[in-house]
Amino acid sequence: MKYLKRALSLTLLTSLAFNATTEASEKPLKMGHIKDANSIIVTSMNAMTKKVAGDYVNYTLYVNDKVMIENQPYYRVQTSPDINHAIGYVRADELSIESSKSVSPSTDTLQLTSSTKLYSVPDGTESQVIDRAPKNETVTIRQALKVGSTLYYEVTRATGLTGWMKADQPAPAPAKKTVERAAPVQPERKAVAKTEAEPAVITTPVPGARTVNATFRAALAAQMKLTPRPQVSNGIKWSNAPRQAVIDAMNPGKIANDPVNRYQFLTLTEPQGLSVNQLNYLLQGKGILEGRGQAFKTASERYGINEIYLISHAFLETGEGTSKLAKGQKVKGAGQKNYYNMFGIGAFDKNALKYGAQYAANVGWDSPDKAIIGGAEFISTGYLSESQNTLYQMRWNPDAPGQTQYATDIHWAAANARYLAQFYQQLGINGTHYQFVQYRQ
């Protein structure tokens, strides 16, 4: 399973019931790092839901408001300056924090003296490298930020890509370059046009579809700039997906016209009202999930979720009820109980079993039924209640491309759709409520 290659898209509970101001600070946010992968992130102050830090230790984060939780100081951490990219609150003593302040750059452009990595954030880590600019290229400086004692520039390349670099280049571009900084515009246009034109994108209109604000090309560009990039598996290992594969996976016209893939647009917030016996029929021979129709029915009714989808999602994440995480794991420091996780929640790729079990222990999923019902609550709160109520929207978030996406596996939605189509066929019924989308021309 592509467990959190979901990680950074688990900006998860971005709109996650944070009890904090959404006003932007006038001062630059602090920058920081979570010290330990086992540190706890409080994702909701109201419900006190939590998850382990996991792969977030490998990223530089923005540090925002200080709050008190259970008489301890915590800071909100974010993957960008935007509060909508908040991931939760971390205890102050589990963070290393550097102050930051805006400064005026001494020049508008800079000629690079060596090949230079560009990062998605100032003081970024290797996990946040988004590009590399070649030696002698001239970049435009957008702003300068001092983090601790180190100066960083946000720069834009001639290709149009913007990122952060250490300001340790000794020689700024000659003065005449500053005066003539409009000169790079022509190559920038050529580079962008070439990137967007290859390969060709065919977006077939979808009758009755809702049109989102983003164009397909803009949405595709947002996906390709993510860290980590959209992923694909060869059955053995995961790697960055080719651009054409991403185009094929997210093209709504192509998907909507396929009788199986169109289930990616099935509305997931409408329970089907199936009986426990019908659900158990689908669960026959499926390992730890067999006979748990009542738990799926309870989850469906309690959180208003299509129960066939819940089973499909659980099948995908647990290897049809056979994964170690689904069958229960003991967690160090959490007693002798087994803890269960049926939807791969918090299961970071670095060690999916460890982190998935730790998350389950943090939220008390000490039985398979609790994991099914609790996982449904998590999905409902983190996604379905935020208008991402189809598989396609959960994966690609066309209303805000690149943000709050459930997985980075480009075939995640398609794999779920195959299960849905199969189950509807087994039950002799058809999916009837769809929410198709198309991108603005």
UniProtKB/TrEMBL annotation:
Residues 281-435 form the Mannosyl-glycoprotein endo-beta-N-acetylglucosamidase-like domain. One of its GO terms (cellular component) is extracellular region. GO terms for molecular function: amidase activity; N-acetylmuramoyl-L-alanine amidase activity. Its EC number is 3.5.1.28. Pfam families: Glucosaminidase, GW. It catalyses: Hydrolyzes the link between N-acetylmuramoyl residues and L-amino acid residues in certain cell-wall glycopeptides. The keyword Secreted applies. SMART domains: LYZ2. It comes from the Bacteria. It is found in: Secreted. Keywords: Cell wall biogenesis/degradation, Hydrolase, Secreted, Signal. It is an enzyme of class 3 (hydrolase). GO terms for biological process: cell wall organization. In the N-terminal section; belongs to the N-acetylmuramoyl-L-alanine amidase 2 family. This is N-acetylmuramoyl-L-alanine amidase.
